[in-house]
Amino acid sequence: MSGAASREIRDEFLKSKMGMVGISILATLIIISVVAVIAIPVETFQEWNNPQSWISYPKVAVPAWTNLFLVEKAPEHLILDSPDTGSIIGDVSLVTSSFAFDYIYDGFPNDFIYEFSAEYSGSPLLQMYVLRPDGIRMDILSSSLPYLEARTTHTERVFSTDYSIKKNIAMQSDTFGFDLERLPPEELLFSYTDYNEPLKGRYVFVANIYHTGDGIKVSDSRLIIGGKAFGVMGTDELRRDLAVGLLWGTPLALFIGLVVAIASVVMGLLYGVYAGYRGKKTDETMMRFNDVIYALPALPFLIILSITISNSIFVMAGFLMVFGWVGVAKVSRSMSLQIKTRGYVDAAGMMGQKDSKIILKHILPQLLPYAFASIAISVPAAITTEAGLSFLGLGDPSFPTWGQILHDADTYGAGARGLWWWIMPPGVMIALTGLAFVFIGNALDAIVNPRLKR
Amino acid sequence: MGIKRYVATRAVTMFAVLMITILITISLVGSNMDVILKQGVAFQVRSEITDNPAIAGGFLSVEKFEEFVQSQIEQRMQILGLDEPWYSPQRIGLTMYKILFLDFGHATFLASDSGSTDVRDIIFEKLPRTILLFTTATILISIIGIFLGALASSRVGSMTDRLTSSFAIISSSFPVWWIGMLLIFLFAFTYQVFPARATPDIPSSDPGYIGALLYHMTLPLITIVLIGFGSWAYLVRNFMVGIMQEDYITAKKTIGIRPRRIIYTHALKNAAPPIITILALSLSGSLGGAIITEAVFDWPGMGRLYFDAITVLDLPVIIGATYVLTAFFLVSIFIADLLYGYFDPRIRAGV
C-alpha cells in the first residue's frame, strides 16, 4: 500500500458518517477505561468477589438518579463518616461521634448500622440517641462494650435489628400516637409521632462512648442508613456497587477484543499469505489443516478448555485466538493467489529476492486494508464470545467482566424479578463496544470493497 | 478436481475432524475421568463384598478384610484394563471406539426425565427439543431474511434498505442471551405473557405436554428470530445487489420483464448457492449457540444439558454432548460443502 493509497483510504474514512460514529464511541470507551483505571484502584475491583468488602452497601438498590423521575422518592442509602471528638469530664473521658443528614425521602430506610473500632481496656459504655427534625430526642441504645483485660482494639457493628434497641424504643412508646407493635426501630425513629409516615428533615445521630480509666481511642466510626437507592448504577444482590464493575469492564473488554482480534488477524494473514504464495503441496497441506480447525466446534471446546486448563483471562484470550485466525487465513490465501500472478511480484522473484522479502514487501502491504477491516470486524465476536463464556460462569473470577455481571444477574433471576439496572447496563456496554468496531469495520469494508456500496 | 474427488476429500476431512475432536476432548478430561471411573469401580466392588454376608463374615480382623477388598478391586481394575494409565493407546483407542458408536457410559450426576443415567438416553431425550427450537427459528429467520433482503436489494438506498442494513448491523452486536434476559424482563416480569422458565412444568407423559412445550418455546423463539433475521437480510441483500449488476439482469430489464419478476425468479435463483450454504452453516452454528441461549431460557434441550453437565462437571455427559454437537456441526458443514459444490459450476465441472 503506497502512501497515496493510505491517504485516500483515510480521507474516505473521515468522510464516512458510520466510521466517525464508530470512532467517537471508541474514543468514549477509551476515556472511560482511563478514568476507571485511574479513579478506581485495582485493589477495590479485585475485591469484587469478596462479600466482606461490600458489607456497607445496600442490597439490590436502584440507581440513585431514578429518584429524579419518581414522585415518591425512594430512600437513598447513606454511608456517613464522622470525625470523633473526645472530651474529658472529671475522670470520665467521652468520645462523641455525631452524624447529621437531611432525610428527604418518602419511604422508611431498610435499617441502620453503626460501626466503629475502639481501643481500650476495661468496660466503656456506648450510648446512642437521635435528635429528630421535630426536636424530639429519642434514645436508641445504651449498653456496655465487652470487658477487655488488656488494651486491645474492639470492632463492633450495631445493627438496628438488635433486640435491646427495640426494647429501648418500646420504652418511649408514649411519644407515639399509634401502636408500635411489630414495627422495626427504623420505622419509628423516622416516623411522625401521630401517624406512621416518614418525617422529613434534618436528623442528627449521636453515639457517645464513656470510659473511665486510661484513654480510649475510637476510630472508623460510621453510620449507615440502609436505603433502596444507591450510586450511579445501583447495586446487586451481593451488595456490590455496579458502577465499579461496569467501569472496570471497559478496559477488560477492550483488552480482550483488541488483543484477540489483532493477534488472530496477524496469524491468519501470515498463514494464508504464505500458503497462497508457496502454492502446490504446501498450500494443499496448510489448507487441509485450516479446514480441520475451521470445522472444530469453537464454543464447546472453549468451555472444556476453560474448565480443564485455566479460566484466566489471558489464557482465555489465547484460546480465542486459536479459533479466530481461520477465516482470515482462507480469505488472505485467495487474495495472495491473485496478487502473486501480478507482474511485479514475478519480477521480484526473477530478480532473486527472497520469499520472505517478497511476502513482506510486495504481498502483505496489498492486504493491509483488508486486515484492518477484519480486525475491526473480529473485535465484537471476541468480546461477545468472552462475555458468553463468562455468562456461563466460566469467567476469570479475579477480573470481573460484563459477562460475569450478567451471569450473576441471571443466577439471581434479575430478569424475572425486574432488576433492570442489573441487566441493562452491562449488555448495553457489550453492544456499544461491539457497535463501535462494527461501524469502523463496515466503513473500512465499504472503502476496500466498493462493490457493496452502490 | 472433480465432484467425486471433492466429496471424498470433504468426507475424509470431516471424519478426521470428528476423531481429532474426540481425541482432544478425551485428553483434556481424561485424567479426571480416570479418577471418577476408578472410584466407581472401587465403590462397586466394595459394596458387592459388603452386601454378601457369606464373604464379609469370614474375616477375623478388619485389616484382613481390607486387604481382601483391595486385592479384589485391583483384580477388577485389571480385568477392565484400568491399571494402565488413561493415556495409554489401548485405553484411548477403546474409549474412542466406544464413543464412535454412541456408547458414552453412565452419567455421574445427571439423569434423563425418565430416570435413566445412560448418557445416550439423556442425549436422545434432549436432542429433539433443541432441534425443534433451533430448526423452527432458523427456518423463520431465513424466510424473513430472504424476503427482506430481496426487498431491500430491489430498492437500494431507499428507507427500507437503510433500515434493514442498520438493523442488521445493530442486532449483530447484541448477544442473543442478553436480548433473552431483556425479553424475560419484559414479557415475564412487566407484562406477564410468557413464562420466564421455558421448561414446561407438567410431566412429559401428559397429553398436554406438546402444547405446553410450544407455549414455553415462544419466548426463546422470538429472541432467536429477532436477533438472527437482520444479518440474514443483510447478506441476502449484498448477494442480490451483486447479482443485479450482472449483464444478464440488465438484459432482462431492457427487454421489459417486470422488475419484481426479475428479482424473485431470476436473481434469487442465482443467489441460491451461497444462501443455501449459509442456511446449512447457520443451522449448525445455532446448535453451538444453543448452549448459552438454552441456559438463559432454561429450555430443556442439548444446550442446557451441556450447561448443567459443566456446572456439576459430569464428564461422561460433557464428552457425549460434545461428540453429538460436533457430529451435527460437521454434518451440516459437509452438507453445505456438498451443496456449494453442486451449485458452483466451477467445482462441478472440475475446474
Describe the structure.
The complex is a heterodimer of chains A (454) and B (351). Chain A is α+β, with helices and mostly antiparallel strands. Chain A is built from 15 helices and nine strands. Chain A has helices spanning 3-15, 17-39, 42-46, 163-170, 186-189, 242-278, 280-295, 298-308, 313-324, 326-339, 343-350, 355-394, 402-411, 414-417, 420-448; strands at residues 78-81, 85-89, 92-103, 111-122, 125-131, 137-144, 148-159, 201-212, 217-226. In chain A, helix 6 (242-278) packs parallel to helix 9 (313-324). The longest helix of chain A has 40 residues, at 355-394. The radius of gyration of chain A is 32 Å and the shape is elongated. By secondary structure, chain B is mainly α. Helices cover 79% and strands 0% of the residues of chain B. Chain B is built from 13 helices and no strands. Chain B starts with a helix and ends with a helix. The model of chain B has no long low-confidence stretch (mean pLDDT 79). Chains A and B meet through helix 7, helix 8, helix 12, helix 13 and helix 14 of A and helix 1, helix 6, helix 7, helix 8 and helix 10 of B.
Question: Distance between the terminal alpha carbons of chain B, to the nearest Å?
Answer: 7 Å
SSE sequence of chain A, one letter per element: HHHEEEEEEEHHEEHHHHHHHHHH
Could you give the distance between the termini of chain A?
24 Å
How much is the average pLDDT of chain B? Answer: 79
Helices and strands in order, then pairings?
The complex is a heterodimer of chains A (454) and B (351).
Chain A (H helix, E strand, L loop, with lengths): L2 H13 L1 H23 L2 H5 L31 E4 L3 E5 L2 E12 L7 E12 L2 E7 L5 E8 L3 E12 L3 H8 L15 H4 L11 E12 L4 E10 L15 H37 L1 H16 L2 H11 L4 H12 L1 H14 L3 H8 L4 H40 L7 H10 L2 H4 L2 H29 L6
Antiparallel strand pairs in A: 1-9, 2-3, 3-8, 4-7, 4-9, 5-6, 5-8
Chain B lengths: L2 H49 L1 H4 L5 H19 L8 H12 L18 H36 L4 H14 L3 H15 L18 H36 L2 H8 L4 H39 L4 H11 L2 H29 L1 H4 L3
